[in-house]
């Protein structure tokens, strides 16, 4: 059988490895940090920094196709890997999603609506961006942000100096604050043959910048539901994308606004493990290996709840809850804000 190379050994890499194994593939993780949660399920693990080119080359040579759980892979590493084996999703999806400024410009180029935004290279640019966009607004680092990290809210112009002091030193973007009623996401997939399949949109609730729950079905009208799917398909086709993509959307009375995209399996797609015959992890493996895609149809309603930090204390109770499927990541040290697992509550139909 073939071997899937997965860059990143966090929980997403772990669940991709499990899905690969179920389809008869081996998986080999390349982890640039330490102690990957995926280490105990993958067939092989390489732990090395991205600038260890010999290790990268050996990893690429040992696998048949390369994918990733994490979009912030340095360009030089990608150049090297791409010279050895195909990488899916491809370079363009990574380039665009690594930088919020590039991403928003790309989305607007597809005639999709985003929050108003401005590049903020220095403090005077922040003043003029605030004058143009108004408050409330959010100052964000262009790169490397996740779980709401690297963001400062500017409720009134008086907050701008503090926001600048907090984030200066990184390339920044200012975004106008969207007055949304709720947040949804579409987990979509595109195969090597260009076919597209979407899962039903899920409704997402965040706390302290971190995803807490995803519930399907989301509260959406039929036309909003089809808009959400069409938006995802437009992005997939524009990128000639192969694999699973997450698209985060704000729901407003004026329509759907695209918040951000993630070129990988997505936390808000974990409900598919217990709501669909083919979940997002299997769908991703199918896409990158040239299988036909699963149809994405949903057999059950689900509420996915992330288990973050101390939430693990609730395990004894959760283990007894009816129709609650536990997914634990095998992480040993509990830290506040750390994603330790999730539970899919299958809802009575
Ligand atoms: P993720 O962990 O999803 O990658 P992230 O750190 O990249 O998150 P965003 O998705 O940009 O951050 O923002 C996190 C949350 O903050 C959003 O889900 C939303 O609730 C809120 N938020 C972000 N940008 C805006 C905005 N322009 N207007 C209103 N709310 C926003
Ligand atoms: Mg993000
Ligand atoms: Mg987000």
Automatic annotation (TrEMBL):
Binding site for ATP: 100, 140, 145-151, 175-178, 183, 206, 259-260
Start and end residues of each ATP-grasp domain: 104-289
Keywords: ATP-binding, Ligase, Nucleotide-binding, Purine biosynthesis
Name the UniProt record assigns to this protein: N5-carboxyaminoimidazole ribonucleotide synthase
EC number, UniProt record: 6.3.4.18
SUBUNIT field: Homodimer.
Domain of life: Bacteria
One of the GO biological process terms: 'de novo' IMP biosynthetic process
Leader peptide range in chain numbering: none
InterPro entries: ATP-grasp, ATP-grasp_carboxylate-amine, ATP_grasp_subdomain_1, PreATP-grasp_dom_sf, PurK, PurK_C, PurT/PurK_preATP-grasp, Rudment_hybrid_motif
Pathway(s) this gene product operates in, as recorded in its UniProt entry: Purine metabolism; IMP biosynthesis via de novo pathway; 5-amino-1-(5-phospho-D-ribosyl)imidazole-4-carboxylate from 5-amino-1-(5-phospho-D-ribosyl)imidazole (N5-CAIR route): step 1/2
Function comment: Catalyzes the ATP-dependent conversion of 5-aminoimidazole ribonucleotide (AIR) and HCO(3)- to N5-carboxyaminoimidazole ribonucleotide (N5-CAIR). Catalyzes the ATP-dependent conversion of 5-aminoimidazole ribonucleotide (AIR) and HCO(3)(-) to N5-carboxyaminoimidazole ribonucleotide (N5-CAIR).
Gene Ontology molecular function, alphabetical: 5-(carboxyamino)imidazole ribonucleotide synthase activity; ATP binding; metal ion binding; phosphoribosylaminoimidazole carboxylase activity
Gene label: purK
Catalysed reaction equations from the record: 5-amino-1-(5-phospho-beta-D-ribosyl)imidazole + hydrogencarbonate + ATP = 5-carboxyamino-1-(5-phospho-D-ribosyl)imidazole + ADP + phosphate + 2 H(+)
GO cellular component term, pick one: cytosol
Family: Belongs to the PurK/PurT family.
